[in-house]
Automatic annotation (TrEMBL):
<dbReference type="GO" id="GO:0000166">
    <property type="term" value="F:nucleotide binding"/>
</dbReference>
<dbReference type="GO" id="GO:0032263">
    <property type="term" value="P:GMP salvage"/>
</dbReference>
<keyword id="KW-0328">Glycosyltransferase</keyword>
<dbReference type="GO" id="GO:0006166">
    <property type="term" value="P:purine ribonucleoside salvage"/>
</dbReference>
<keyword id="KW-0479">Metal-binding</keyword>
<dbReference type="GO" id="GO:0000287">
    <property type="term" value="F:magnesium ion binding"/>
</dbReference>
<dbReference type="GO" id="GO:0052657">
    <property type="term" value="F:guanine phosphoribosyltransferase activity"/>
</dbReference>
<comment type="similarity">
    <text>Belongs to the purine/pyrimidine phosphoribosyltransferase family.</text>
</comment>
<dbReference type="GO" id="GO:0046100">
    <property type="term" value="P:hypoxanthine metabolic process"/>
</dbReference>
<dbReference type="InterPro" id="IPR029057">
    <property type="entry name" value="PRTase-like"/>
</dbReference>
<dbReference type="InterPro" id="IPR050408">
    <property type="entry name" value="HGPRT"/>
</dbReference>
<protein>
    <recommendedName>
        <fullName>Hypoxanthine phosphoribosyltransferase</fullName>
        <ecNumber>2.4.2.8</ecNumber>
    </recommendedName>
</protein>
<dbReference type="InterPro" id="IPR000836">
    <property type="entry name" value="PRTase_dom"/>
</dbReference>
<dbReference type="GO" id="GO:0006178">
    <property type="term" value="P:guanine salvage"/>
</dbReference>
<dbReference type="InterPro" id="IPR005904">
    <property type="entry name" value="Hxn_phspho_trans"/>
</dbReference>
<keyword id="KW-0460">Magnesium</keyword>
<keyword id="KW-0547">Nucleotide-binding</keyword>
Length: 177
């Protein structure tokens, strides 16, 4: 399988171990109360799918949104648009936004505020990767898989120009000198 010029950052074993921990925490926080997991396409598709497999709560619903951020660089521009909206009603429900990676926070802030307007009972955020050092706006992230300082990451749902999403581990793209 072709891989990017890369450096392994998070192994498949570590991802699965962390997902089990996160699923346990979420189960402890909500017990059997209904919870709607909202995955952000496309990056969170693998994370969401592995996460919900380890949730023991029988009252789970799953939905997806797709948010696009327009700009020329590999960094969020803040011009965020919802290109696929929620399909399930969330008013009065416990909602967890499941994000692949929170970088500047601009995408998540947009989504958080949009879902908050729909009056959920509770609204939490679960992110596989948090790049806290790069944050530009304040957004709460309640469940965090891994803290990563910098670097452009691919694999396990994350892409570079739509490639490498299928890889089962997370790599940092190493640019040629
Ligand atoms: P933010 O708005 O800057 O927080 O960016 C969030 C979105 O940008 C994520 O949901 C990803 O889709 C994408 N993104 C940010 N950093 C990376 C990265 O290192 N690799 C791949 N996608 C990224």
């Amino acid at each position: 399988m072709e891989k990017p010029q890369q450096k392994l950052v998070i192994s498949e074993k570590d991802i699965l171990h962390k997902i089990k921990e996160l699923a346990n925490k979420i189960d402890n926080d909500f017990n059997e109360e209904p919870v709607v997991f909202i995955g952000t396409l496309k990056g969170a598709f693998m994370f969401l799918s592995d996460l919900v497999k380890h949730i023991k709560n029988p009252n789970v619903e799953v939905d997806f949104v797709r948010v696009k951020s327009y700009g020329l660089s590999d960094k969020s521009s803040g011009n965020v648009e919802l290109v696929k909206d929620l399909e399930l009603p969330v008013e009065g429900k416990n909602v967890i936004i499941v994000e692949d990676i929170v970088d500047t926070g601009l995408t998540l802030k947009f989504l958080y505020e949009r879902i908050k307007e729909l009056n959920p009972k509770t609204l939490k955020v679960c992110a596989l990767i948090n790049k806290k050092e790069r944050r530009e706006v304040d957004v709460p992230v309640d469940y965090i898989g891994f803290e990563v300082e910098k670097g452009f990451l691919v694999g396990y749902g994350l892409d570079f120009a739509e490639r490498y999403r299928h890889l089962s581990e997370v790599y940092e793209v190493v640019k040629d000198e």
